[in-house]
């Protein structure tokens, strides 16, 4: 079973507030340096790693000399703004020791709910990973409002795993993994070694946060595993204080709790596409494009005879044959004006027509469901 994590090529590693700030006493630079060392080793082995790190608020509270985490939103946001500086500074320094660049990415829920921003966030993250940079991701706490808040970074970690189609989500926390009950309250609680991410029994076992420093607790980690599994990512919840935790997981060791996905990435992603789309327009395809799509290929502009509706880049559109029958739907890489201009053109002509080339396909096959 642990080969699932060992074989992962693209990983999201999430570290919680209590860990990063040594239970709220300030950034734990030693621990951060140790994760950076391990991530650098994984990179050398050809793996790509994005890091979702909490700790901005806890670090800010400590930097400002406050005794405890405040309740008022404006004070929390001020603390996050101060703390995020320290957080990325520290990561930059510890990764630089291994010759690795870092990049700060701050996200809100809105960024991932909006198709255009979703695609932009995805291509930026993919580009950074391909460049060998380690993205350091956190919620944009300083501007976020209650309505658009992820709230805890476990959820954010899962959404990032979905976004970049990671193979694994590693959640580092202050416990060895998921126990049958909160081990802080029940000394008889036992560690769960592994199970299906969607197994509902795990939710009943998981409780809230272990300290006033953190936000989510175990319940958000279990839900994050369910969410990550929808795009085919396996989740491992383990202790960030365990020596060489990341390296041992990459070697296939049985560490922590493995909550594995049961569907393949593509099936899961297509399921998501089929379930969640609100259509903003439609495309009419010629017989050649219909045949290409049925054969599992991407949609190129050359096969599109008509573009209906006004939509933005990243919108969901339905796909029709010339008789009007709907054969599928997908997320389009160009807005309606651009799509009209490049319809019927060969991909090689896109740049000449638009003055730029975002993607050679109008809709990539991974972003499409064909009935
Ligand atoms: N069933 C459980 N197994 C393990 N930990 C649990 C469980 N239920 C609740 N917890 C609590 O969840 C805490 C970890 O979550 P949290 O405090 O949010 O940390 P992080 O900052 O790493 O996200 C643990 O310290 C533990 O007290
Ligand atoms: N974005 C917040 C993290 C929220 C939070 O506490 O998350 P976690 O510790 O992962 O449960 C921060 O950086 O302080």
Task: Chart the SSEs and their pairings.
Layout: H1 3-6, E1 10-15, H2 17-20, H3 29-44, E2 48-53, H4 56-63, H5 73-96, E3 102-107, H6 109-113, H7 115-130, E4 134-139, H8 153-163, E5 168-173, E6 194-196, H9 201-205, H10 218-230, E7 234-239, H11 245-250, E8 257-260, H12 265-276, E9 279-285, H13 287-294, E10 304-308, E11 316-320, E12 326-331, H14 336-342, H15 350-354, E13 368-370
Helix pairs in contact: 3-5, 4-5, 8-10
This protein binds adenosine-5'-diphosphate and the ligand N[C@@H](CCC(=O)OP(=O)(O)O)C(=O)O.
How would you describe the overall organization of this protein?
The chain is α/β, with parallel strands linked by helices and 371 residues long. It has 2 domains: 263 residues, Acetylglutamate kinase-like (Carbamate kinase); 94 residues, Roll (Archaeosine Trna-guanine Transglycosylase, Chain: A, domain 4), CATH 2.30.130.10. It contains 15 helices and 13 strands. Strand 11 and strand 12 form a beta hairpin. Helix 3 crosses helix 5 and helix 8 runs parallel beside helix 10. It is globular. Ligand VHF binds next to helix 4, strand 4 and helix 8. Its EC number is 2.7.2.11. It is found in: Cytoplasm.
In the CATH scheme, what's the topology name of the largest domain? Carbamate kinase
What string, H for helix and E for strand, traces the elements in order?
Answer: HEHHEHHEHHEHEEHHEHEHEHEEEHHE
- Helix fraction, binned, reads 25-40%
Strand order of the largest sheet: 3-4-2-1-5-7-8-6
Which small molecules are bound?
Answer: adenosine-5'-diphosphate, ligand VHF
Number of domains: 2
- The CATH class of the largest domain, by name, is Alpha Beta
Q: Any guess at the CATH architecture of the largest domain?
A: 3-Layer(aba) Sandwich
Function: Catalyzes the transfer of a phosphate group to glutamate to form L-glutamate 5-phosphate.
Protein name: Glutamate 5-kinase
Family: Belongs to the glutamate 5-kinase family.
Organism: Pseudothauera rhizosphaerae
């Amino acid at each position: 079973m642990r080969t699932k994590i060992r074989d992962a090529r693209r990983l999201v590693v999430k570290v919680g507030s209590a860990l990063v700030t040594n239970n709220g006493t300030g950034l734990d630079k030693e621990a951060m340096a140790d994760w950076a060392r391990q991530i650098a080793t994984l990179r050398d082995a050809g793996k790509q790693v994005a890091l979702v790190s909490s700790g901005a608020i806890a670090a800010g509270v400590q930097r400002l000399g406050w005794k405890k985490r405040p309740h008022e939103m404006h004070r929390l946001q001020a603390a996050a703004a101060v703390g995020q500086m320290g957080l990325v500074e520290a990561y930059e320094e510890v990764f630089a020791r291994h010759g690795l660049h870092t990049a700060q990415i701050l996200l809100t829920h809105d960024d991932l709910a909006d198709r255009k921003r979703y695609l932009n966030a995805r291509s930026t993250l993919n580009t950074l990973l391909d460049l060998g940079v380690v993205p350091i991701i956190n919620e944009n706490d300083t501007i976020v409002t209650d309505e658009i808040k992820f709230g805890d970074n476990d959820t954010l970690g899962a959404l990032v795993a979905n976004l970049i189609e990671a193979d694994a989500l590693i959640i580092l926390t202050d416990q060895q993994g998921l126990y049958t009950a909160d081990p802080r309250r029940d000394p008889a609680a036992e560690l769960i070694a592994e199970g299906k991410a969607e197994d509902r029994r795990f939710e009943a076992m998981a409780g809230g946060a272990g300290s006033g420093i953190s936000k989510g607790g175990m319940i958000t980690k279990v839900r994050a595993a369910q969410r990550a599994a929808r795009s085919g990512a396996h989740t491992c919840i383990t202790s960030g204080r365990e020596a060489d935790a990341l390296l041992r997981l990459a070697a296939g060791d049985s560490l922590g709790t493995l909550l594995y996905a049961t569907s393949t990435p593509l099936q899961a992603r297509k399921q998501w596409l089929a379930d969640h789309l609100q259509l903003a327009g439609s495309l009419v395809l010629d017989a050649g494009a219909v045949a290409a799509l049925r054969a599992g290929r991407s949609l190129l502009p050359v096969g599109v005879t008509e573009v209906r509706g006004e939509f933005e880049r990243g919108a969901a559109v339905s796909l029709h044959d010339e008789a009007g029958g709907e054969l599928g739907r997908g997320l389009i890489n160009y807005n309606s004006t651009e799509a009209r201009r490049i319809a019927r053109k060969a991909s090689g002509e896109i740049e000449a027509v638009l003055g730029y080339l975002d993607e050679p396909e109008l809709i990539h096959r991974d972003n499409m469901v064909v009935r």
